[in-house]
Amino acid sequence: MSSWQSPSNIALIKYWGKREQQLPQNASLSITLNNAVTRTRVKLLPGKLNNSGLELDFKLSGERNPAFAERLSTFLDSLKGTFPFLLGAMLEIQSENSFPHSAGIASSASAMSALALCLCDLEQQLEGTQNYQDDFFKKASVIARLGSGSASRSVFGGFTVWGKHTHVSGSSDEYAVPLPFEPHEIFHHIKNTILIVDASQKKVSSSVGHHLMNGHPFAEARFKQAESNLSLLLDAIKSGNWDDFSRITENEALSLHAMMMSSNPGYMLMHPNTLVVLDKLKHFREKSKVKICFTLDAGPNIHLLYPESETEAVKPFLSDVKDYCVNPAMIDDQIGYGPINLQTQANET
Ligand code: PMV
Q: Which atom of ligand 1 is nearest to the CA of 22?
């Protein structure tokens, strides 16, 4: 049995567009979250079946979820070459999220990374080792990526880079790596408050969105922009330049949504209240000079980012925009430390 807790993450430099085998068209950078996590427990009964199939018993928060079970089955089937112990196996998977569904938090990132960690752990257990070193997390990141691209970054805490980039040594399209330097102290406890302006299911999935980047008239320019934005953001994170950090992060969020609007067919994932709140943010910042900026995922909800030291100063803005949000209006999170092996933790306590 294996049990891991893995966090979600929010990208600052966006991955949008992919090549075969879930490889990114450009490198991306994210912050791993602290409170938004998935806890997954996998029980394996190897070689129980009389054929090479795989039987899955999956529950999310104690309940069957046929749609996600089907996605997991397909994913697990595709991994039989990598993990031969899945051949003819019976698998019991129980998962739970710490955050509400459809709150604009990428549950596939935390879910797929938690599952990948469990699978890599089971492999080690069957080999009689328990060696949670760099290679273990590198492999987990590769497996997580195959499940959901952005999940590759959730295997590490702090700032994480996925995709080959000349300024990040050891970076790869196959797996994510932690930032190779210490961020400036202004970013050490960076906060992420998510304003939920709309909690309904998104109208266009990310996989459709990625696909629409094939043949997109602005695709090449977008991949170049992301490459150069990542270089600039790395400098800002190192030097503690909040204004550059803010400008680049917001440019990435709006460019992501610009790609959606200019796809063929085009679509919009922002809600009218997304624009109202972003306009209010601009005015609040101009007036107060508080260090705060936003990013958007592929959805209408707003991820506010600010140094921990600004927590009090941000409060008036939060109460001002509450009426433009649904219930729950906001989710409080911050940069986190990455996955936890729940079995090891249980044995220690
Ligand atoms: O990992 P996917 O396939 O769900 O794509 C994620 C895409 C974005 O969330 C919009 C950006 C990113 O880098 O996380």
A: 3
